[in-house]
Amino acid sequence: MLSQLRTHATIPAADLERARQFYADKLGLTPTEELPGGLKYETGDSWFLLYPSRGAGSATHTLIGFTTPDIEAEVAALKERGLVFEEYDFPTLKTVNSIATMAANRAAWFKDSEGNILGIVQFT
Questions:
Q1: Which domain holds residue 47?
Q2: Distance, C-alpha 57 to centroid of its chain
Q3: SS3 label, residue 24
Q4: Separation between Cα atoms, residue 86 and residue 68, nearest integer Å
Q5: Total domains in the fold of the chain
Q6: Quick one: pLDDT at residue 16?
Q7: Which CATH number fits the domain that encloses residue 8?
Q8: pLDDT band at residue 99, thresholds of 50, 70 and 90?
Q9: Which end of the chain has fewer CB atoms surrounding its CB within 10 Å, N or C?
Q10: Residues near 12 by beta carbon (within 8 Å), at least 6 away in sequence
């Protein structure tokens, strides 16, 4: 059943070529395969699909999370590439230098060229 299957994320892009450039320039990612339905990216032991859609940027939640053992280093490296992180100041969630601490975990969020929210998380 489903519990035995691998999962993957699907991320919409209003302009697939613009998104491809963003994922290359800002995130350092190159598609591993060009499929009829979009671009396949492999990261670690998982993958995600960037696909053309007019619904890009309409989600108000994180579409994909990248797990890291060192969130400070990852955020700093991405900022050096020109990536801008979201800053939040809510009663239950506040970022400090782009990173939020939630119990034992830490996370940071940014938007891609299509307005989709992507995240980085460090589980401790």
A1: 2-122
A2: 12
A3: helix
A4: 18
A5: 1
A6: 97
A7: 3.10.180.10
A8: very high
A9: N
A10: 51, 52, 53, 55, 56, 57, 58, 114, 116
Residue 17 token pair = 């070529």
In what order do the strands lie in the sheet containing 117-122? 62-67, 117-122, 105-111, 99-102, 93-96, 89-90
The 10s digit of each residue's pLDDT in 16-75 is 999 999 999 999 999 999 999 999 999 999 999 999 999 999 999 999 999 999 999 999
Tallying the residues shown for the chain, one arrives at 124
Cβ-based burial of 20 (10 A; exposed 0-12, middle 13-18, buried ≥19): buried
Q: 117: Cβ–Cβ under 8 A, 6 or more apart, which residues?
A: 59, 60, 61, 62, 63, 86, 109, 110, 111
Average pLDDT, the chain: 96
Report H helices in the chain: 16-25, 71-80
Q: Is the pLDDT of residue 1 over 90?
A: no
Locate tokens 């020109």: which residue? 82
